[in-house]
Specification:
CATH topology of the largest domain in chain B: FAD/NAD(P)-binding domain
Strand content of chain A: 35-45%
Strand order of the largest sheet of chain A: 8-5-6-10-9
Largest sheet of chain B: 7 strands, mixed
Number of strands of chain A: 10
Oligomer: heterodimer
CATH superfamily of the largest domain in chain B: FAD/NAD(P)-binding domain
Radius of gyration of chain B: 23 Å
Number of domains of chain A: 2
Helix content of chain B: 10-25%
Structural class of chain A: alpha+beta
Helix content of chain A: 10-25%
Strand content of chain B: 35-45%
CATH class of the largest domain in chain B: Alpha Beta
Number of domains of chain B: 3
CATH topology of the largest domain in chain A: CPE0013-like fold
Chain lengths: 117, 428
């Protein structure tokens, strides 16, 4: 199967054609450098994204910003957002605190990116 | 400043006064303190340090400076912690009202009222503002629901409010792209991102991860030609534009929406700079500076987005460290002696910073020059010309207006300059 993707490594933005067979990248064309191949191998087989959001802090008017500690599978983004929409934390929350462990069974924790005293 | 003896006694002297505690102001303060300035004061209009980073909850900051990917609040916190650790005095909730060329500064805050300062050096680090709807001359009604992208970002990320449910984004700068994703993730439908130019000024990464990931169409060479709605926005009309950016009749598309976000450019916030009669550049909309970030007024320095709009905060910090160090050296009486040469924009180059370069009598240091390409240039070379003589060059696969270009002038190159104007140009 062939997929068309744009490389995100630099402003050149190579349009690459990626051949995927049996869940493995077998050919990449259109790339200018080897970073394109590495990106295609991740993006066409198991695309991942960081998710950042805000969640409610109990008894506070303003929310706290959070992120997944590492990227999660792209297909899990909306499920992750849904779980975070139903998550509430109590102050104080410190930057780096886990606010939602193992989000959507990804094995990845969601952590606070700011401190609310 | 002519003051009565009573008022005069209220003036506080500071060696280095910094306006703004965003990433630029914080970095400048840290560098000034580390260079030995004890009497240092930072004035910040908002209640918190951190500037616009506080609302940029997405990640991607800090790759150059910290070699890791941070969110905006995390990046800001590292500087906030450092500022606190160094014991630097920061007055938040304090708005600077005026600055003059003798470095007399007035400011106001709720708890301290009007405050007056005399500064040995001033560092301007006020950042930039978004270009508003009024600057676009788009026809339509004055309905609610039209926001600048950064305002919407503040609502969603800091206040926890959603500005709307069905959204069109005008402009494809990075803030617009980031907000397209943010609105989508919070449950809004983003119908389109509309860009006047034939290319996006946003990063490829953001086009892929903020638009393509969510099947949001990007209409290049299109613009909004009508804004409709009585009290609340009810829809916008979008049309394709020709090479002169004029709408082409017959290409109109209508979108029913309750929200229009504008991501149509950033403007350095230079009202205070102009009060001090600092010489300005029409191209960067910031001050004209030399390689130490000093403006045309002695002892007044500028750095970060108030000087020229950057793409990456990492570069704002780097520039501001230089400004902080230079301001410290200025108040410590270290004179820079030499001859100035002008750096000029040549073909394909817009807004070289710095605009002036000191060829010192003693040893020279490497100087980084930055500029924005005027268009998209592939397989092109930037040439630095001293008259007809090329003194430096940089080849790249692509130059785009969306990415600030930078180039280093080595000490031996600077020492070898003839003294005439130096021109930076792009050749394809």
């Amino acid at each position: 199967m062939e997929q068309q993707i744009t490389c995100i490594n630099c402003p050149v933005g190579c349009r690459m054609t990626v051949t995927v067979e049996d869940g493995k990248v077998t050919n990449v064309t259109g790339n200018t450098c080897k970073r394109g191949v590495a990106y295609a191998e991740q993006e066409c087989v198991a695309p991942q994204r960081m998710v950042t959001a805000v969640i409610t802090v109990a008894d506070r008017k303003t929310p706290v910003s959070v992120k997944t500690r590492t990227p999660i599978p792209k297909v899990k983004i909306f499920e992750c957002m849904k779980q975070l929409a139903n998550t509430e934390v109590k102050a104080p929350v410190h930057m780096g605190d886990v606010v939602c462990a193992n989000v959507c069974g990804t094995g990845v924790d969601v952590i606070a990116t700011k401190t609310v005293e | 400043m002519n003051l009565s003896p009573e008022l005069r006694s209220q003036v506080m002297y500071v060696d280095v006064l910094i306006v703004g505690a965003g990433p630029a102001g914080m970095a400048a303060a840290i560098a000034a303190r580390e260079a030995g300035v004890d009497n240092l004061l930072v004035l910040e209009r908002e209640q918190n340090m951190g500037g616009i980073l506080r609302q940029c909850i997405h990640n991607g900051f800090g790759l150059h400076r910290f070699k890791e990917e941070l969110t905006g609040p995390e990046y800001a916190q590292r500087d906030i912690d450092k500022v606190k650790e160094l014991g630097i005095e920061v007055r938040t909730g304090t708005t600077v009202l005026s600055i003059d060329e003798d470095r007399f500064v007035t400011a106001i805050s709720r708890d301290k009222g009007v405050q007056m300062f005399e500064a040995g050096a001033i560092i301007l680090a006020m950042g930039c503002r978004e270009r508003p709807r009024g600057a676009l001359a788009t026809p339509g009604t004055r309905c609610a629901g039209v926001y600048s992208a950064g305002t919407a970002q503040k609502f969603v990320n800091l206040e926890g409010y959603m500005p709307g449910k069905r959204c069109v984004i005008l402009g494809s700068g990075d803030i617009g792209l980031i907000m397209a994703r943010r609105m989508t993730l919070q449950g809004a439908k983003v119908l389109a991102c509309v860009e006047l130019m034939p290319y996006s000024s946003g990063l490829n990464r953001n086009i892929v991860q903020c638009l393509q990931d969510y099947d949001i169409p990007l209409y290049l060479s299109h613009t909004v030609i009508d804004i409709e709605g009585k009290e609340r926005l009810s829809g916008v009309t979008v049309a394709q534009v020709d090479a002169n950016r004029q709408p082409i009749p017959g290409t109109e598309k209508h979108f029913d929406c309750d929200t229009l976000l504008l991501s149509v450019g950033l403007i350095p916030e230079n009202e205070l700079t102009e009060m001090a009669h600092v010489e300005m550049s029409a191209l960067t909309a910031g001050a004209i500076v030399d390689d130490s970030l000093q403006t045309s007024k002695e002892g007044i320095f500028a750095c970060g987005n108030v000087l020229h709009v950057h793409d990456l905060v990492d570069f704002v910090s780097a520039e501001s460290f230089k400004a902080g160090k230079a301001a410290a050296e200025y108040v410590q009486g270290k004179k820079r002696v030499g001859k100035y040469v002008n750096l000029k924009d040549g073909n394909g180059v817009r807004g070289v910073v710095p605009q002036k370069l000191l060829v010192p009598e003693g040893e020279a240091e490497t100087v980084q020059i930055m500029f924005r390409p005027a268009g998209v240039y592939k397989n092109a070379t930037v040439r630095v010309m001293d008259g007809d003589r090329e003194v430096a060059r940089l080849k790249k696969l692509i130059f785009t207006p969306g990415e600030m270009a930078e180039l280093n002038l080595k000490p031996e190159v600077i020492k070898g300059l003839s003294g005439g104007d130096v021109t930076i140009q792009i050749e394809q």
